[in-house]
Specification:
Distance between the termini: 33 Å
Structural class: alpha/beta
Number of helices: 15
Strand order of the largest sheet: 8-7-6-9-10-11
Number of strands: 11
């Protein structure tokens, strides 16, 4: 039997700042398994994972796993949690987004504009969450400010969205809005049980800066026990380097870099084609473009890398439809926490849909039982 000793990840990560010898060694190991990971010029994971003793087996390869997570009898030790921010840690749309728009309107002297919650939710529904489209729909309905010429509507909307973003940052920083009830206890329970917790700030609809500000509400001690995966962490991940084509050539020889580039290009095209098919069949996911889905998939795969577990041993706690679509795309188990933006949506691919943390809703013990059933 052919064996290779590597981290529990089925991918090999290349890190900057390594020596030439280390890069050559990584390139050789990658070349050895290249044909098994890249099939038909498409980057795909091994067909199956099998846990036994303290090793992870796929194909003809057996990878040594960290004994800290694989030799325990507790099944929860073999999973990791990936948490979205918007809708999971905080329901930003319900608490802050509408108020931020109203602050922006006031700063720009738009006394005619004040979004009540019913108006706001109606605009979100009709625009599929596209904020420029929300402004167009609203001002088409009530009339555009007389000071805004037709040719200046684009600039006007950019000004509104800029002020709205500034107001949103201020609202999130303030103590007026807190995390979802039970979120801190849920994370504490996971950490106490040795379950890796990854907080995904990379694709938050409110922006990574806002997402990190929300995550910081967990407190310094709790943050030290979790891992934040933002845009930079995604780009530095092995999968991110392959798909986005940055940093690979510095670690590999020219021939291998060309192979990676071709494979990455094929992966982008494959994702785009599959997304096109998804969008035709599932209209509820029509807010997910091929580019955004690719970015979210990259974030989920990066999260799995940093957790040092296979994708299907990681559970996404999602508050967005796009996150659920990406998890389904890579067969990552997903639990949905309903929020104001997903209160009426259906999630057939999720293993569970719950209203919040704790009590009769999402707890670590309930999640583990769900995974084992």
């Amino acid at each position: 039997m052919e064996t290779a000793s590597c981290p529990i990840l089925y991918t090999i990560r290349f890190r900057g700042g390594g020596t030439t010898a280390r890069a050559a060694s990584s390139a050789k190991l990658y070349s050895d398994i290249h044909g098994k990971l890249l099939r038909g010029n498409s980057i795909i994971p091994p067909p199956s994972y099998k846990f036994g003793d303290n090793r992870l087996q796929f194909g003809r390869f057996i990878c040594n796993a960290s004994t800290a997570n694989t030799t325990q009898s507790d099944p929860s030790q073999k999973i990791a949690l990936l948490l979205e921010v918007d809708g999971v840690l905080m329901d930003v749309y319900r608490l802050c987004n509408r108020q931020a728009f109203n602050v922006a309107f006031r700063k720009l002297g738009l006394d005619c504009a004040n979004w009540t919650e019913p108006v706001y939710l109606d605009l979100v529904r009709k625009s599929a969450g596209d904020e420029e489209r929300m402004l167009i729909l609203f001002f088409n309905r009530i009339g555009w400010p007389t000071s805004v010429a037709t040719s200046e509507k684009g600039t006007f909307m950019k000004n509104v969205l800029r002020e709205k973003k500034n107001a949103l940052d201020d609202l999130v920083i303030s103590n007026a809005f807190s995390l979802r009830p039970g979120a801190e206890a849920f994370i504490d329970d996971a950490c106490d049980k040795g379950i890796p917790v990854i907080i995904l700030t990379a694709y938050c609809t409110s922006g990574e800066k806002v997402a990190r500000l929300i995550a910081e509400k967990l407190g310094t001690d709790r943050m030290s026990k979790t891992k934040i995966v933002g845009d930079d962490e995604v780009k530095q991940s092995f999968y991110g380097q392959l798909v986005f084509g940055k940093g690979v050539s510095s670690s590999l020889d020219e021939k291998l870099a060309r192979e990676v580039s071709r494979a990455a290009s094929a992966e982008r095209q494959r994702i785009a084609e599959e997304v096109a098919s998804i969008l035709k069949l599932k209209v509820e996911l029509n807010t997910t473009s091929s580019e955004s889905l690719q970015n979210i998939v990259a974030a989920l795969r990066a999260g799995a890398e940093y957790a040092e577990l296979p994708v299907n041993n990681c559970v996404l706690i999602a508050g967005s439809q796009s996150g659920v679509a990406a998890a389904e795309r890579i067969s990552m188990p997903c639990v949905v926490l309903r929020s104001s933006s997903t209160s009426r949506a259906e999630f057939p691919s999720a293993i569970a849909v719950m209203d919040g943390f704790g009590g009769a809703d999402l707890t670590i013990s309930r999640l583990v039982r769900k995974l084992m059933s």
